[in-house]
Specification:
- The chain is of the alpha/beta class.
- It has two domains: 190 residues, 3-Layer(aba) Sandwich (Rossmann fold), CATH 3.40.50; 83 residues, no CATH class.
- Helices cover 35% and strands 16% of the residues.
- It contains ten helices and ten strands.
- The strands form two sheets. A six-stranded mixed β-sheet has the order 3-2-1-4-6-5, sandwiched between helices. It has a four-stranded antiparallel beta barrel with strand order 7-8-10-9.
- α3 links the parallel β2 and β3.
- α1 packs across α2 and α7 packs antiparallel against α8.
- The protein starts with a helix and ends with a helix.
């Protein structure tokens, strides 16, 4: 493998092509966030000039930053790709889940329903091992049983990057081509290939308030409580997701070089710094992944 970011791209392309060779109905998860943007661009490059042979799906909580949804639709239109939407709101309306202040955990039901309905047998996600300890445990090709569940104590070996993709009817794999990338690698790739991102990844003024030591955006989905003062701050988002649990960070990084400089000296991962839903317990992410979460 070639060194640096080029080697990581080679690895990701090999993984993506392995999926195309071994599975009948693969799908790429695409939220408009930086990791899914990079994964989609790598996948397009893996098959160019042919058309991407995968479906593209967004698990939509309905509580999104509008800048991200606008970008999502623009990006896919520019690539000539169609989007399947797995809707949390639809699951709520059908009585499958009860609405909650944060819909992030509710994505599991919408995701598993969409996998079953579309008979997807491989679901590619942009998760990276450096983000969070449960993600660091997971294999590149992560087997899920007929209930969509993950068993962290019974994972398949991946010695010498040899992957076991065998599965029974009704089972599927979650595949993570960017497992070995870091946040800095992601931004380096974005710069090298001049990839567009949602504007909220760069410094801008936004109405925020402090909750749990984090800067939460004042939106229609999340309002301040008594004693939580709203004020304007120059911020950016290191990661994007449900607006009810994704925090901003103070920043003046208005361009990609500035973001690279900030990222190079960061000592906390983007999820650790800005995702309130990961702070429910030490094993919060692992518990959700066991049940079928991303």
């Amino acid at each position: 493998m070639r060194p640096g970011i080029t080697g990581l791209e080679d690895e990701a392309i090999s993984i993506i092509r392995e999926v195309a060779a071994c599975f009948e109905r693969p799908v790429i998860l695409f939220s408009g966030g930086k990791d899914s943007v990079v994964m989609l661009h790598v996948a397009v490059r893996a098959f160019a000039p042919a058309r991407l042979p995968f479906a593209v799906m967004h698990v939509d909580t309905g509580h999104n930053f509008p800048e991200v949804i606008d970008f999502r639709d623009r990006c896919l239109a520019g690539l000539g790709l169609n989007l399947t939407v797995a809707s949390v709101q639809a699951a709520i309306d059908a009585g499958k889940v009860a609405d909650a202040p944060s819909r992030n955990p509710l994505q599991t039901v919408a995701l598993l329903d969409a996998i079953a309905e579309n008979k997807f047998d491989a679901v590619l996600g942009g998760a990276r091992r450096d983000e969070e300890r449960a993600r660091a445990k997971e294999r590149v090709f992560s087997h899920r049983d007929t209930f969509g569940q993950w068993d962290p104590k019974n994972q398949r070996p991946e010695l010498w990057n040899i992957y076991n993709t065998s599965h029974k009817q009704g089972e599927h794999f979650r595949v993570f081509p960017l497992s070995n990338w870091t946040e800095l690698d992601i931004w380096t790739f974005i710069k090298e290939h001049d990839i567009e991102l949602p504007s909220i990844y760069f410094a801008h003024k936004r109405r925020v308030f402090k909750r749990g030591g984090m800067l939460m955006a004042d939106t229609e989905f999340l309002r301040p409580e008594a004693g939580e003062d709203v004020y304007e701050e120059m911020v950016r988002f290191r990661t994007v997701g449900d607006a009810t649990c994704t925090a901003a960070v103070p920043s003046t990084a208005g361009g990609i070089d500035d973001v690279l400089a900030e990222t190079a000296v960061a000592r906390v991962t983007e999820r650790g710094a800005t995702r309130a839903d990961d702070k429910i317990s030490e094993a919060g992410m692992e518990d959700r992944k066991r049940q079928g979460y991303f």
